[in-house]
Structures are given as structure tokens and as C-alpha cells.
Structure to design on (377 residues):
């Protein structure tokens, strides 16, 4: 079994190898308030400040900085980066000095595109002669292949996905407001230790065209209730996409499920090491095209046909035109979620791991159109 220390060393070595290939003396993993995955990847610490950095030099010890004092103890206590400091934007002298002491000549900043100008100016002041480039793609690529240590955490997330979906189905009944469904899910997954949850929901019949946060709309008999349920466990997000019918499914709802299930199967059938996100998306979209629903694969009706999973909930997009290679042990969800006129917006999808000869489905929940008259019988 891989220890935490071995996992840390693996990650730092992987990133440093990529730094050497691109000529970086120093990598700054920047974590704004809503994109902290790179800071967590290098520190395994759950930070909550508005801005944080992990500074990884080509040689020597890493250091970390956060604008929230409580994060400093969290980072140091985790043990992956013990040299942790408070970054006071009003008095940033220590941050500037320590960066300057690195004497880095070429700096890569992951999430450079999200870095506020004030913080970028501090880096420039600390190392005025250094070249600064984006290292966002470098860390995206490093995080793409999951270690066994990471996969163990993601499998725990998968069990919480299944439990959350079961809680979703168990409460469905006519008259229940959408927010009560979400409350039941939140209670169950938090009981199981989820750090966070991203969840969308929609209910209705064939007029539903998308998914939103929960409203006070009350469920009616015959409604199809859809969700993307994405709990975070130990830092790792995993998603399940399912639809359920309040009562008994109509013929149209069953035909809709068959179409979407065929598309999920088609996406999974092409998965193998070296497949591209584009190819997985095309395989799904071709099912819709073959059945005469190709227009509903466009951006007018849908965003992606899936996306990567890991320390960020929405990584590599599975979309036509994205030729990112999906190597063995990458993890992503295949979900052809979109509107069609058959029965409205439909949600269906499973997270998978790329294996040596195909894919492993990470959730145990049956892929079917759930009907409450069956579940509650």
C-alpha cells in the first residue's frame, strides 16, 4: 500500500520532471478561492482562503503561502509541505523576499490565467528578471493520470455517489418540492463524510430543457426527475448522472432512456489507453445522429458529453474538437446529457477509469430508468 509520503514524493517528482522538460526553475501552483486543486495536489491540504500558493523549486524543499492564517497550520500539519507561511496582501514583504531568494530565471504559474494582477505584480517585483509563463497545462497533465493512492480515494467517492442516488430515489413522491430532494441527498452524503457536493436537479415532463439549483417546484406524478450528483471525498470529486420517474415511466420516457443508454454504451466501447476526448464524444454523438437527433448534440442544447474527474470536479472536457489523449488510469464521466423532444432533458452517465484494455465503471448503481412505483413497491 502506498504511504502518504510515497504519494507526495511521486507527485513532486512527476511535476519536477515536467518542469525540467519545459525549462522551469520554479513552479507556483496558485489556488484562487474556487480552483484549489493544484494547491491540494502538491500539499494534500484542504485550504479555504481566497488565495494560496505552493512554490515548488526544481531542487530543494517546497513552500506554501495562504491569505488565510488557518490554512498555514492546515498545510504544515498535513506534512507534505511543512514550510508554510501567511501571505498578508497588505504587507507582502516576506512573500517577496522568499520568492526573490529562489533566484528563479523561469517561473511557471499554474492557473496563471486566474491570477489577480496584484499578486502577479508581487511575483514580478520579487524576481524582476525572471520569465513568467503559464504552467496550467503542465499541472493539468500531471493530474490526469491517477495513482493507486488517488484511485482508492475516488472509489470511496463512488460509494458515496451510490448512496446519494439511493437517497434521491427513496424520497421521490408527488407534492415534494425539489429542495427537499436535495436536502435528503445532502444529509446522507454528509453523514458519510463528504466534504462538499455539486448538484443540479430538474423535474418535469417533456418541457424541461436543462438543470438548475433546486427550486420550490413540487413534483407531480409522471415527472422525470434528473440530477448530476457530485460529492467530494478526501479532496476527490466523482459524479453520477441518473433520471427517475415519479410513478410509472411513459413510453416516451423509456424510449428516451434507451437512446441515452445506447450513447453511454457507445462512449464506453471506444475507451482504451490513447483514445482522445474527441473520439469518446463522437461515439456518443453518432448515436444521436443515427437516430435523427444530431442537432441536440450542439452547443444550443448541451455543453459536453462528459468531463474529467479528480481534485477538480470538471476537468478535461469530453467534447468534439478536444484531442486530449486519455491515458491509462485517467478518470472521467461519460454523460450524453441533453434535451431531445422525445421526453425532454435526460441525464445519464457513469464515471470510468481507463484500463489497459477498456474501462472500469466506478459506480455500482444500475444504469436504468428508475421508477418510484418499482423502488417503493
Amino acid at each position: 500500500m502506498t504511504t502518504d509520503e510515497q504519494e507526495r514524493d511521486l507527485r513532486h517528482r512527476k511535476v519536477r520532471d515536467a518542469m525540467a522538460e519545459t525549462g522551469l526553475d520554479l513552479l507556483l501552483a496558485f489556488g484562487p478561492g474556487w480552483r484549489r486543486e493544484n494547491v491540494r495536489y502538491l500539499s494534500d491540504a484542504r485550504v479555504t482562503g481566497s488565495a494560496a500558493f505552493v512554490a515548488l523549486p526544481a531542487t530543494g524543499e517546497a513552500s506554501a503561502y495562504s491569505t488565510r492564517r488557518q490554512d498555514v497550520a492546515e498545510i504544515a500539519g498535513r506534512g507534505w509541505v511543512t514550510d508554510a507561511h501567511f501571505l498578508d496582501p497588505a504587507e507582502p514583504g516576506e512573500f517577496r523576499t522568499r520568492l526573490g531568494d529562489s533566484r528563479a530565471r523561469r517561473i511557471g504559474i499554474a492557473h496563471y490565467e486566474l491570477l489577480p494582477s496584484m499578486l502577479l505584480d508581487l511575483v514580478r517585483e520579487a524576481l524582476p528578471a525572471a520569465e513568467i509563463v503559464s504552467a496550467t497545462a503542465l499541472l493539468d497533465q500531471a493530474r490526469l493520470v491517477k495513482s493507486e493512492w488517488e484511485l482508492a480515494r475516488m472509489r470511496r467517492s463512488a460509494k458515496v455517489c451510490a448512496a446519494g442516488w439511493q437517497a434521491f430515489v427513496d424520497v421521490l413522491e408527488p407534492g415534494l418540492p425539489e429542495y427537499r430532494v436535495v436536502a435528503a441527498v445532502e444529509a446522507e452524503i454528509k453523514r458519510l463524510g463528504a466534504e462538499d457536493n455539486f448538484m443540479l436537479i430538474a423535474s418535469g415532463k417533456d418541457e424541461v430543457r436543462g438543470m438548475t439549483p433546486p427550486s420550490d417546484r413540487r413534483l407531480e406524478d409522471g415527472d422525470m426527475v434528473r440530477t448530476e450528483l457530485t460529492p467530494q471525498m478526501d479532496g476527490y470529486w466523482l459524479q453520477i448522472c441518473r433520471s427517475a420517474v415519479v410513478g410509472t415511466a411513459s413510453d416516451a420516457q423509456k424510449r428516451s432512456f434507451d437512446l441515452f443508454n445506447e450513447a453511454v454504451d457507445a462512449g464506453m466501447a471506444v475507451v482504451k489507453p490513447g483514445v482522445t476526448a474527441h473520439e469518446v464524444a463522437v461515439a456518443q454523438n453518432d448515436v444521436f445522429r443515427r437516430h435523427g437527433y444530431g442537432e441536440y448534440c450542439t452547443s444550443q442544447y448541451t455543453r459536453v458529453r462528459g468531463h474529467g474527474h479528480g481534485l477538480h470536479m470538471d476537468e478535461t472536457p469530453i467534447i468534439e474538437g478536444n484531442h486530449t489523449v486519455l491515458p491509462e488510469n485517467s478518470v472521467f464521466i461519460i454523460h450524453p446529457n441533453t434535451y431531445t423532444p422525445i421526453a425532454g432533458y435526460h441525464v445519464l452517465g457513469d464515471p470510468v477509469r481507463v484500463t489497459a484494455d477498456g474501462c472500469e465503471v466506478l459506480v455500482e448503481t444500475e444504469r436504468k430508468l428508475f421508477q418510484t412505483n418499482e423502488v417503493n413497491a
User: Anything to note?
Assistant: Residues 209 and 345 are 5 Å apart (CA to CA). The chain is about 35% helix and 25% strand.
